[in-house]
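Encode chain A's predicted structure.
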Amino acid sequence: MYLYIEKARNDNIITIEELEGFRKLMDEYNVAVRGIKLDKFDFDKLHKDIKKELQKELVEEMKEKEKQQYRSQLCAAYGTLHRN
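Encoded structure for chain A:
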């Protein structure tokens, strides 16, 4: 497609060959797009899967945050105990 557009842009002439080539590419594109059917996708399942993944990520983030806070508390307590 780029080739046909650039040829027309460079010489300011749109030839029958360029039109036919462009039309052929657009027809191939339309056939390919029509071959993909949205009803093949189960959007409810996709939504549930995404929700499940996000919940897992949130739990992992919360666990990591708790670990960091606990480590900080232990370091502060150990540092205080160790100095006495």
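Helices lie at 2-11, 16-35, 43-83.
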